[in-house]
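Now for one specimen:
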Amino acid sequence: MDDRPAHPATVSGFASPLPYRPARRGVILQRARILRITAGNVRGDVAFPAIRRRERMKYWLGRCYLWLIGWELRGEKPPMAKYLIIAAPHTSNWDVPVMLALAWVYGIRVSWIGKHTLFKWPLGILMRFLGGIPVDRRARHNAVEQMVDQFRQRDELALLITPEGTRGRSEYWKSGFYHIAREAGVPLVLGLLDFKHKYGGLFEVFQPTGDITADMDRIRAFYAEPNPKYPADFGPVRLREETEPLETSPSPTSS
């Protein structure tokens, strides 16, 4: 009968990639590293590819935060490399950490638009780490054109925009998100934060057709029964252009 102790990888439920050898410090460290990598590639009962250490750290931070606040991740990560995420409803500062946690668990590096003055040193280091993209509204090209250029220059980009433009009640959504997606040729991904049932995620995906009213009808149907943190601050889901067409494409922060 073999009295040798069981290999730690076998005890943990993973097949050992190494034959048994007498314990030596180098071997123990090597086996520990294999266990750590293997365990890091399993999320519940769903396997996912090995990712960089920083992304693994974000995943676990996001997962722990959602667990602490009692939230659940639903929906699916979009399969395409470039898309624009509609983040709604947006009525509270608490929306931001929840959205970031959801993105980190998904394994998505979300980007967002910020005024260029926020990206000066040293704050700019943190802003870019969190996915910020500076937009200079003094530039010749408006913000929509600048973001369309970003989509064209990058191989991957998940741009997150809050069309309400403010945490307070707004009678119209800002239409920049629609023009960016349309001109860049990327799909819209409908994100949702449900504070009543404590879940969030990315759900419906569709390509804007150019028929603003028809596309907004689809978005309205999705957000027909939202549960924001402050319901009174969530206004109508509509664009001013549905009744008052504009001659030029507005910026993401314009009406």
